[in-house]
Fold SDR family oxidoreductase.
Amino acid sequence: MSNRFDDQVVLITGAGSGLGRAAALQVAKEGAKLSLVDLNSESLEETKKVILAAVPEAEILLVTANVADEAAVKNYVEETVNKFSRIDGFFNNAGIEGKQNLTEDFGSDEFNKVVSINLNGVFYGLKYVLAVMKKQGSGSVVNTASVGGIRGVGNQSGYSASKHGVVGLTRNSAIEYGQFGVSIKAIAPGAIMTPMVEGSLKQIGGENWEEVGKEFVQPNPMKRFGKPEEVAYLVAFLLSNQANFINAAVVPIDGGQSYKY
């Protein structure tokens, strides 16, 4: 395997599970030093164990933080720079789905909670990481949007609104920071079998969630859920120097779902 990330520092939020953990493992295998952020410290420790089992020599910083708290975001960026002196790649990934309901029944508190994590958290991450990358004159950012950020998703007002916002932030910041040697893009995952998606299926189907899942993927051209490691391969490429000229792009990884409708 190529060592595309030798001597590079990659910062990942939402690293305690799902896409964040898969991406952390992938870039560690390719030589990255890691700063891993999550609200759940136990999940972070588990991610570290998974990585060290595969890459015993990996250098890993763990930071427990709520990405909806600007001061906490500023702190995880400062801790990363204090330890590693730089940030070469940033997977701005932490997010939640929230409860499912018609817009008229969607609670305002729930809406604000989803937006504060999914959108404000991405903004705070960009705000502090881009200042570091601008000073370096280099860097690559991948924001986690969603197919829900490029088309509507019923019963998910907060999620869809927040992910559309992530797409907007991606394009806006890419226009601003390309001149400083920083490329910024987003991924738009479809139904990937992560703990978050499993939780959503359980909201809908309860004990029958696996059957609901089988029905859920039938409209997808590939008729299956994606795997976290499939997303991790894409994220690793987009964070690498091989993708420096990809800027302001929103890349679907959804089995063709967003193109079918």
Observations:
- Residues 195-225 form one domain.
